[in-house]
């Protein structure tokens, strides 16, 4: 009669929670906690007690970016041309980097999530010089330079209140989706990039034309406009400089490998000035992170996000929960045909120039025609509201793309040469990029020392081991003899 209870008690005592071995009990308590634990605690426990190898995060964003480079080199003197262009204008290059500082970490994260080559995070450098307010002569706008039709195709709204092409978060998602789609058409990142610049239909026609003639259909062999011909070389030139800036005599501004901003859904319409007040940041900073908002009111939509510095998200949410004043100090007003804008400005206590600017009313347009305009809810504007209008005016203005054309080029560093040699046999798949890495060189060093373009050739001598004289000290040059066929 006592056997069944004894068996039950024995089984209970054998559970890991009551095991005699304290390590077994500890392990059970960690993996089967009686009380739910937070995600942060779970991550710490996993790092401490799992067999998984945790790779430490890079402290500098550039080290992280370099690890993700994957687009092959191309055999074109245009790469060297653009390497020289950017390297001789280090102030221009660092101006682009300064402009990218709030956004680059986010773009790198999105590129990594999608498993794309990290060169894509550098693409806004050649598209817009990383300026979300950039506007081209073809009316392409934003950091990723979307024309209206392509932007609409990828869900970037353009309304009176908002331009999604300027929205860093929305436009980055749209651009990467577009690049992935066109890569799927060609299974070639160079052709995908050409399509981004020239259009996928134009690239498809060029590919079909070459294939019909029995010719190579790679990027370097296609007939294309000069802008597209230079497009990939520009990107690879910047990639090469970032991969080894010292070799080009360039000192990149350091950038922390950490997020600057986050996003949230306010859930309500609100003034730009009140959003800044709730986040405890300036209106200028709010608009720098949200250049898509172009009116005094942030019009709420479910798929539209507000971007804030990470440290200010909780502040915004707390202040919004406690805020009891009206969130809107502006209202729509339907004009009556024949009303004068000068008179309306007086009625609503706003300067006529401010009324015109905020509502895109032309200076020659004096009489209303029944359109809806935005006016203050209460007559008169205080100084902070006038400052907000000035900031919004500046934000609505588009910028010409900074190409560095006005930067005076600086002298290039001289590469040192020496005589000590060794042999390198080119293997299948070798490029100058991987040969240079193998011998601790940069592309610029290897090419400058040998007067070569971008690929290793058989029976040519390659000097290696030198660095720019500016940095070299007493470096030893080595000579590489290519003694195999060209495999590319």
Topology (elements, then pairings):
Blueprint: H1 3-13, H2 22-31, H3 39-49, H4 61-67, H5 77-87, H6 90-100, H7 104-113, H8 123-127, H9 148-153, H10 168-186, H11 189-198, H12 200-212, H13 226-243, E1 261-264, E2 270-271, H14 272-279, H15 283-289, E3 297-298, E4 306-309, H16 310-322, E5 330-334, H17 341-347, H18 352-359, E6 372-376, H19 383-396, H20 432-438, H21 443-450, E7 461-464, H22 469-472, E8 478-481
Helix pairs in contact: 5-13, 7-10, 10-11, 11-12, 11-13, 14-15, 14-16, 15-19, 17-18, 20-21
Search tags:
single chain; mainly alpha; two-stranded antiparallel sheet; 22 helices; disordered C terminus
Number of helices, where a helix is a run of at least 4 consecutive DSSP H or I residues: 22
Tell me what portion of residues adopts beta-strand conformation. 5-15%
Helix share of residues?
A: 40-55%
Radius of gyration: 30 Å
* First-residue to last-residue Cα separation: 83 Å
Oligomerization category of the chains in this entry: single chain
Low-confidence stretches: 22-31, 48-54, 414-421, 455-488
| Secondary-structure content class | mainly alpha
Largest sheet: 2 strands, antiparallel
The strand order across the widest sheet is: 1-4
Helix/strand order, N-terminal first? HHHHHHHHHHHHHEEHHEEHEHHEHHHEHE
Overall average residue pLDDT: 83
What is the number of strand segments? 8
Q: Give the overall form.
A: elongated
Short description:
The protein has 488 residues and is mainly α. The chain is built from 22 helices and 8 strands. The chain has helices spanning 3-13, 22-31, 39-49, 61-67, 77-87, 90-100, 104-113, 123-127, 148-153, 168-186, 189-198, 200-212, 226-243, 272-279, 283-289, 310-322, 341-347, 352-359, 383-396, 432-438, 443-450, 469-472, and strands at residues 261-264, 270-271, 297-298, 306-309, 330-334, 372-376, 461-464, 478-481.
């Amino acid at each position: 009669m006592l056997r069944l209870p004894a068996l039950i008690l024995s089984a209970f005592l054998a559970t890991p929670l009551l095991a005699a071995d304290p390590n077994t009990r500890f392990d059970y308590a960690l993996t089967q906690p009686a009380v739910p634990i937070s995600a942060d605690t779970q991550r710490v426990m996993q790092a401490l007690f799992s067999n998984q190898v945790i790779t430490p995060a890079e402290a500098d964003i550039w080290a992280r970016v370099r690890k993700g480079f994957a687009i092959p080199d191309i055999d074109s003197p245009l790469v060297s041309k653009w390497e020289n262009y950017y390297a001789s204008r280090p102030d221009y290059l660092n101006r682009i980097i300064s402009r990218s500082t709030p956004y680059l970490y986010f773009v790198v994260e999105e590129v990594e999530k999608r498993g794309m080559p990290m060169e894509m995070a550098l693409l806004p450098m050649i598209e817009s010089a990383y300026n979300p307010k950039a506007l081209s002569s073809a009316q392409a706008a934003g950091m990723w330079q979307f024309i209206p039709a392509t932007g609409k195709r990828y869900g970037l709204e353009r309304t009176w209140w908002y331009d999604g092409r300027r929205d860093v978060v929305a436009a980055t998602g749209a651009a990467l989706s577009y690049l992935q789609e066109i890569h799927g058409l060609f299974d070639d990142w160079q052709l995908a990039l050409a399509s981004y610049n020239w259009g996928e239909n134009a690239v498809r026609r060029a590919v079909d034309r070459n294939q019909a003639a029995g010719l190579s259909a790679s990027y370097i062999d296609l007939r294309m406009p000069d802008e597209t011909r230079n497009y990939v070389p520009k990107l690879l030139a910047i990639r090469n400089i970032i991969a080894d800036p010292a070799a080009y005599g360039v000192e990149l501004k350091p950038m922390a490998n950490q997020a600057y901003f986050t996003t949230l859904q306010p859930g309500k319409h609100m003034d730009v000035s009140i959003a800044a007040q709730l986040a405890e940041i300036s209106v200028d900073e709010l608009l720098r992170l949200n250049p898509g908002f172009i009116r005094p009111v942030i019009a709420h939509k479910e798929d539209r996000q507000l971007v804030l510095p990470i440290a200010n998200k909780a502040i915004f949410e707390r202040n919004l929960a406690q805020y009891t004043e009206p969130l809107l100090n502006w209202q729509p007003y339907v004009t009556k045909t024949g009303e004068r804008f000068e008179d309306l400005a007086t009625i609503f206590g706003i300067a006529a120039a401010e009324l015109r600017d905020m509502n895109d009313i032309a200076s020659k347009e004096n009489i209303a025609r029944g359109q809806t305009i935005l006016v203050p809810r209460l007559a008169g504007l205080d100084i902070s509201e006038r400052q907000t209008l000035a900031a919004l005016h500046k934000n609505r203005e588009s910028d010409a793309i900074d190409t560095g054309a006005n930067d005076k080029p600086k002298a290039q560093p001289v590469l040192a040469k020496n005589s000590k040699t060794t042999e390198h046999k080119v293997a299948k798949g070798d490029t100058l990029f991987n040969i240079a890495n193998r011998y601790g060189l940069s592309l610029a060093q290897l090419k400058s020392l040998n007067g070569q373009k971008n690929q290793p050739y058989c029976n040519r001598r390659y000097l290696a081991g030198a660095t720019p004289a500016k940095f070299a000290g007493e470096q030893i040059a080595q000579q590489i003899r290519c003694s195999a066929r060209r495999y590319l």
